[in-house]
Amino acid sequence: MLTDGEVSPDPTSADAGSVEIVAKNVGGLLHNLVIVRGDDPAALPVDEDGAVIEAALPEGELIGRIAAVDTGTEESALFDLDAGSYILFCNIVDPTAIPPNPVSHFEAGMVTTLTVT
Fold first, then answer.
1. Domains of the chain (ranges plus CATH)?
2. Staple 103 to which of 31, 76, 97, 112, CB 3.0 to 4.6 Å?
3. Quick check: pTM over 0.85?
4. Measured between alpha carbons, how far is 117 from 104 in angstroms, rounded to an integer?
């Protein structure tokens, strides 16, 4: 589930293989959902706005994304996930936020982890 300021997976773990991820936006802002292999969100490279620089991730770590989820809607996609840890986050930058301006949803706390066994 995506709210303004939080990513809350339910459940918080999944079995390895083809995993359907449903991104339901119950917040008031547009969100997306990016899936990266890893367990430490603080280790992800970020730009001056606090957004994750997806192009700077090591090859193979970016698993995929659900590009845009409008408020009050949900989008889903299947991802082939091996056992391990994954970071799920919104990587939208809101240029209208005051202060600071702009604000990355990732930097504002829209990030969590998912364990795949």
1. 2-116 (2.60.40.420)
2. 97
3. yes
4. 30
